[in-house]
Amino acid sequence: MQIDINQKSLGTMLKKVAIIGAGPGGLAAAIALQNLGFDVQVYEKAQEFCPVGTGLGLTPNGLNCLEAIAPGIVTTLKSSGCSVGQTVLKSMNGETIRASSSTFLEQYGQPLLTVWWWRLQQILASRLPSDIIHLNHNCIGFEQDESGVKVYFENGNTIDANLLIGADGVNSAVRETLFAEGKPHYIGSMCWRAVIKYHHELFNSYDLAFIKGKQQFMYLLNVGEGYTSWIYRKFMPDYSLSASVEQVKVRILDELTDWDRSFRAIVEATPAKQIWEGPICDRPPLTSWSQGRVTLLGDAAHPMAPAMAQGANSTFEDVCELQACLSQASSLTEALTNYEQRRIERTSIIQARSAVGEMRYYDIETAKEKQERADLTNEHFSDWLYRYKVFADS
Ligand SMILES: Cc1cc2nc3c(=O)[nH]c(=O)nc-3n(C[C@H](O)[C@H](O)[C@H](O)COP(=O)(O)OP(=O)(O)OC[C@H]3O[C@@H](n4cnc5c(N)ncnc54)[C@H](O)[C@@H]3O)c2cc1C
Questions:
Q1: Is residue 268's pLDDT more than 50?
Q2: Which of 5, 120, 121, 217 is the most buried (most CB within 10 A)?
Q3: Which fold has domain 7-184+283-393?
């Protein structure tokens, strides 16, 4: 479908923008598009905002994009999260293998900033009028024609918009309506995680600890304000989910039987109902993210394994590019075409590198993957990743 809206009327014709999902991507997009003067409404399936999600590492590319979208926000994030100083690699019996200082700030002008997903969501939401965020709106599909998009929700509501943005994560209903791909791809590794108020003894000296086990590992992140995010991961070609929340906790503690008690202690201190258990999934890259008046961003567009900590960071890059393309193009078709062209190649590379990086954790690598991993850590690649400049501004 070819949608031609000329430059003069782009702002007027796209007056109503509907964003599905109030995660980091959807909320950042709402701020960015409000800056352009669009009437933006965000629809979120959750009944309420609650303290969920994991600890995230925000890197210079993501932080610079966030700052461009919402000036001053990095200062707020720094006061909520943690600018990582010292990091440590430990064995499962607690021995220190290597300790080092983060060099992000010196190298790239921004720190590695760890923050709780929920706090990031709150900070982004606080930059928006609360009446544009509609909770309890689970999108179940849409239809579009030349004049607009009609979006359907499970609660029976329908809304009309001129532009629909799917920012609804790895199981995106918008993507499914566009491309009917079915379920995401299980990458072969399970995840258990929680964020709790907890002072780990490691944090007297370290902000980030990586503990390596046998085809399993744990991350402990200081995410600020006295909170610790723990993430336990295990290589598991076939996975099964526990029958109850109580069994989830028992299961992890069983897995950690041989681990030092300081690592078990944080799981023991976590209320069972706060532990999230699930498979890690990605999807193959798409060759197009848009059709007509509908496009995707963030995990909906390019879900990836967490190995490189780029899911949210690349999402903020998407938002910056979408904002630039909408502000500069003479038609919606041109804006969305430019947006895809600036994003798909880069995010496909990050998705592929993340999948390779993931297997490194479990010492399961082919020779080709070993080589790709070596490339991954080279300076040129890090520069490419962390010194990202929005195309239109560069
Ligand atoms: C263990 C782990 C560690 C990670 N670590 C990092 C890291 O260090 N750095 C990093 O950059 N990234 C990290 N990520 C990835 C990061 O969390 C995601 O990439 C990021 O949250 C994507 O943002 P998003 O807004 O696109 O999607 P999401 O965060 O998934 O948000 C989607 C939102 O849409 C809502 N939604 C879903 N379906 C519907 C629907 N049908 N209708 C309405 N609303 C809907 C959801 O409730 C949610 O609020 C990690 C992920 C995991 C699992």
A1: yes
A2: 120
A3: FAD/NAD(P)-binding domain (3.50.50)
